[in-house]
Amino acid sequence: MQLIILAAGTGSRLRSLTKKKPKSLIKIKNTCIVDYQLNQFKNLKVKKIIVVVGFASKLIKKKLGKKLKYIVNKKYRTTNNIYSLWLARKFLKEETIITFSDLVMDKNIPKKLIKSKKNFTLAIDTSKILNGTMKIKVKNKELLAIGKSVKNNADGNFIGAAKIKKSKIKQFRTYLSKIVLSKKKDYYTEVFNYLIAKKNTINFIDVKNSFWAEVDDHHDLKKLNKKMQSANIYKSIT
Questions:
Q1: E strand or H helix at 51, and its extent?
Q2: Under 8 Å CB-to-CB from 190, ≥6 apart: which residues?
Q3: Second label for 6, Cα 20 to 30 Å away, from 25, 40, 88, 197?
Q4: Quick one: the chain helix, strand, coil %, rounded to 5?
Q5: Distance between CA atoms of 55 and 34, rounded to whole angstroms?
């Protein structure tokens, strides 16, 4: 089991805070955003962790240390995380969890992903539909569509964490490589839409009863800071 964290972006919607440092290093209660999930996965004995960096990559490497593996997306300003993940394709050989670096989540979510026996498992939340977060369509416990292809009547949100089983990782890598050049400004979740089009079943875990937050802008950050003052929420994450 390995973890790939996508952390190459500039965090442009948090510009006053991310002019010189990446969003993932913003601190919430004296801990960097990315450190919350790193600590969760390390506690779950996930030993191989790959981080795809781009903007302010030296700062991330210095903060997270030499024990992690790093891939540098030099084209981070003109590409999106599908390209970042493609750059890490040589690591896509074993069971893999992929996360966004600005995701803060209940520690039970990584546990559920690791325990999943499905070929493809996405963590979604059907309790709300948030603007600016990746929307999903589902039916009978299967994913029908994700991201920009969901224009109306969304069923919830993808929170930013997914798992691919080892037996399907080669197929995932093949499809990723097939579409990346035409979609290098898209999210890597476009691979799941491609898999669905090829009649693959994409499953999910619904985390509607668990806390999670993705930090895209100042409103998200302010809201998260406020939520983290709750002892129960903070305990669920740490």
A1: strand 48-53
A2: 82, 147, 179, 183
A3: 197
A4: 40, 25, 35
A5: 15
Q: Name the residue range of residue 108's domain.
A: 2-232
Q: How many structural domains compose the chain?
A: 1
- What pLDDT does 161 receive? 98
Say which residues have a Cβ less than 8 Å from residue 73's Cβ, sequence separation at least 6: 8, 52, 53, 54, 79, 83, 84, 87
Q: Which CATH number is 195's domain given? A: 3.90.550.10
Taking only the tens place, the pLDDT of each residue in 133-170 is: 899 999 999 999 999 889 889 999 999 999 999 999 99
Q: What sign does the CA torsion over 47, 53, 58, 60 have?
A: negative
H and E: helices and strands count for the chain? 9, 13
Read off φ and ψ for residue 11, nearest 5 degrees.
60, 45
